[in-house]
Amino acid sequence: MRRVGAITNEDNASASLSYNALDAVTSAQDFKGITTTYTRDALGNAKAEATPDSGNSTTTYDALGLIATAKDAAGRTLAVQRDALGRPTQLQYGSTATSTLRYDLPGNTYNGPGAPKASTGHLSEIQDPGVTTQYQRDILGRVLRKSQILANGDTKSLIHSYVPAGQGGGGELQSITYPSGKQATYLYDSTGQITGLQWNGQPLVTGLAWSPLGQPTAWQWTGFVQQPGATAALAEQRGYNTAGQLASSQLLNLTWDAAGRISLIQQQHMLPGTAAAQQAKLSSAFSYDAVGRLTASAHSAPSGLTLPTGWSLADTIELSASGYAWDANGNRTQVHYSNALASGTSTLQRNYQTAAGTNRLQSYAQTLQRPGSVAQNSNVTFSYDAAGALVKKGDNHLHYGADGRIAKAGEYADAADARAVSYVYNALGQRVFKSDARGAGQPTTLQTLYAEDGIGSTVLGQYANQRSANSAAPAGQSDSTEIIYLPTASGPMPIAAEINGRLYAIHTDHLNTPRRLTNQQGQVAWQWLISGFGEVRPTTGDRGYGQTVSGPSYAQAVKFDLRYPGQVFDEETGLSYNLHRYYDA
């Protein structure tokens, strides 16, 4: 039948699949021997799933074969209503929460100028608990305006325009107007290639060049200088190998092995100096096992680097070397971190324990050994609900809403306790609002607006209800971050941001992950070292690039929480949110 029955990897571990007479998978056994079974209806739809990791779940389907109801092992239910075209019109989560999706709506709110039926066949509005999202479209169905209206009435909107037909880039995204009123404008040549970006009517990115594979190879950030006191413009130059992988940039040099894995990275990094902050190219080496899993990484400074007396590289980057061990299924069983500090070597050993017969992380025991100190032993436990959702990590509790998404996080087990961080999502899984009520006084809030056509579901803007002491925004304006993206063949690349009234160039790696922010004066304000799983914290210029003690100020303090593509880091949980998932390094 030419069906895949089993897979054996380089460690001689096997995983297998079983099928019914209709060629539908009825069971899957992973490399640890843990089995997930599927019960199917006469049409081959999976109506029941049983797995030790997420329990028993059930699904029913309508006459079109589309999901009608679903129930997970924790008892959370979903009922879907649809129109005659099969489009979902209502999502009922249990008995307490409903999302309504409306299509084809009339009126100027949903239809652009001169196109009274532009919304026909398209989603016009989503009404969710806590937020309503409205879409205005042009005659081609493209989004002209998206308005996000919170339950308290706070509204944020983005506006799109598109290149007219007959011009270079005809039909492509021409501009995005952000809630601040500022506009990102994309410039195209006669072939439709982007040649530059403007921000609020002024040049921001110029001299864009591209490879035949649609990869950016060069550009300049106009209005930025390379380093403090310089006159040369801040510029990027990228090279790619024959496999199309990034090999070099102004920030990075990457070496790839024959299997397409990174074996060595050299990364420009700011470090404390004897008189002022300095820049050095750090080397990070990576090793893998036969299956391709990362087993070790090591970070080192170039020879001849001079650091302040009593200071070491690890005092800034937090990590000299790391080692990883895995079970047959790719779950971490052990991690070893070492830091070569000026006062001696510090080590952290973690041993991970998964619950028997599952892939759920149950706990880890760790030993921290600091130079000249007694070893400190501790244990962190994890708890889950019946559906496998994490509900407790150490002392931090996670409470879920009827939609199965994290609704609250904090130190209290009682979900009704107000001293927590609360979250609001829309039906697309986008987290649009965060409210932190853990402190005294009014909660601090953050509203997030996501991009639409041409950029994908990426964070476009974040808007707080408080103002930082060092904000450069006009008086009376609260903190905000607005991110400007460059569309590329590998996805949207964050290329610049305006944060609290200051412009920053964003330097990214091969994954389009932000690794550095440079201000217009050429100061590196924020940086994030490449490590195995993002375990190290970013370092900032306002602390002189020190982690354990404050160093001399080098740049204004800046808060920036984008991590791997799509991820937003949450200080309150230590997790990174990415639409339908939360990740833990």
Helical content (DSSP H or I, runs of 4+): under 10%
What fraction of the residues are assigned to beta strands by DSSP?
A: over 45%
Through-space gap between termini: 41 Å
Can you summarize the main beta sheet? Answer: 22 strands, antiparallel
Structural class: mainly beta
- Shape, principal axes of CA atoms: globular
Uncertain ranges: none
Overall pLDDT score: 95
Radius of gyration: 26 Å
Task: Tell me the number of strands.
Answer: 47
Helical stretch count? 1
List the helices and strands and how they pair.
Layout: E1 6-8, E2 14-19, E3 25-29, E4 35-40, E5 46-51, E6 55-61, E7 67-71, E8 77-82, E9 88-93, E10 97-103, E11 123-128, E12 131-137, E13 143-150, E14 155-162, E15 173-177, E16 183-188, E17 194-199, E18 202-210, E19 216-225, E20 233-237, E21 239-240, E22 246-248, E23 252-256, E24 262-271, E25 278-288, E26 294-300, H1 313-317, E27 321-326, E28 332-341, E29 344-354, E30 361-369, E31 376-384, E32 390-393, E33 396-400, E34 406-410, E35 421-425, E36 431-436, E37 444-450, E38 459-464, E39 480-486, E40 493-499, E41 502-508, E42 514-519, E43 524-527, E44 539-540, E45 568-569, E46 576-578, E47 581-583
Antiparallel strand pairs: 1-2, 2-3, 3-4, 4-5, 5-6, 6-7, 7-8, 8-9, 9-10, 10-11, 11-12, 12-13, 13-14, 14-15, 15-16, 16-17, 17-18, 18-19, 19-20, 21-22, 23-24, 24-25, 25-26, 26-27, 27-28, 28-29, 29-30, 30-31, 31-32, 32-33, 33-34, 34-35, 35-36, 36-37, 37-38, 38-39, 39-40, 40-41, 41-42, 42-43, ...
